[in-house]
Write a sequence for this structure.
């Protein structure tokens, strides 16, 4: 039980009111002097980037703009970055084909449509062919496990920019805000049937208090089972019977997403998905290029 002890010294209190009144008033900082930010709250995001069908692959981001005043916002841009995850780790070999972010899409706030929350909403539907063109990326340099990162940049009328680097941890990591400001699309190979055997889900919570309501659902032939993490993490085994026609892993976020990470391994032992901190909600794309 917490005990609160109150010590009352009436003369001191009266003296404090008399001597400090003007000083205390001077210490108050008007809210008008504070910087007003903006962020894009995620409504839906995701896509399949299939190495065997780049032309038919895309990534979509639907979000609603949250700002003190919409008139203060000029536009929202999407930058795309390519991350080469298939280098050989030999310092003597320059085989890292990663490319820094470049502009791939932009939308003026005037084109946003008011949604059911009364907030301006828009969708960016980005073709991966358009992304590779913007990056100047050779299709032959794309392998399973590589990543396309889509960065959200909000440009204000006064020239201020809001992106992941200057957005608070609450905005980018908590479920209420649901605004990571960067989205990850992994390159995969899609197989007609999932490999049979034991799949391993390795879950990690960096704070050590479990996944705060988040979980992964493994759906085999239409039947789903939920898995979550306790303490600093939990490993789960998911058995896929021989002859199974479908296997889908889905991530459902909870609170404090910046604490959550996971790795999924196929029966071969190969890592087929690795996300976090702050995994992407929805179906988990599996890289089966080496299966």
């Amino acid at each position: 039980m917490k005990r609160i002890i109150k010590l009352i010294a009436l003369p001191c209190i009266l003296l404090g009111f008399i001597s400090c009144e003007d000083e205390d008033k001077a210490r108050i900082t008007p809210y008008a002097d504070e910087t007003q930010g903006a962020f894009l709250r995620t409504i839906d995001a995701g896509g399949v980037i299939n190495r065997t069908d780049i032309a038919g692959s895309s990534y979509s981001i639907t979000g609603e703009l949250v700002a003190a005043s919409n008139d203060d916002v000029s536009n929202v841009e999407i930058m795309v970055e390519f991350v080469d995850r298939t280098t050989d780790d030999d310092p003597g070999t320059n085989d890292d084909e990663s490319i820094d972010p470049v502009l791939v899409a932009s939308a003026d706030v005037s084109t946003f449509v008011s949604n059911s929350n009364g907030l301006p909403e828009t969708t960016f539907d980005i073709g991966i062919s358009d992304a590779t063109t913007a990056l100047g990326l050779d299709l032959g340099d794309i392998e399973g496990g590589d990543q396309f990162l889509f960065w959200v940049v909000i440009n204000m009328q006064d020239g201020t920019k809001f992106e992941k680097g200057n957005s608070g941890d609450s905005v980018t990591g908590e479920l209420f805000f649901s605004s990571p400001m960067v989205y990850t699309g992994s390159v995969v190979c899609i197989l007609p049937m999932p490999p049979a055997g034991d799949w391993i889900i390795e879950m990690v919570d960096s704070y050590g208090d479990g996944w705060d309501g988040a979980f992964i659902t493994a759906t085999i032939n239409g039947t789903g089972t939920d898995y979550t993490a306790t303490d600093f993490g939990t490993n789960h085994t998911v058995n896929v019977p021989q002859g199974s026609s479908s296997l889908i892993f889905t991530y459902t976020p909870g609170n404090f997403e910046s604490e959550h990470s996971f790795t999924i391994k196929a029966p071969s032992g190969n890592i087929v998905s690795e996300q976090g901190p702050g995994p992407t909600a929805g179906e988990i794309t599996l890289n089966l290029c080496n299966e």
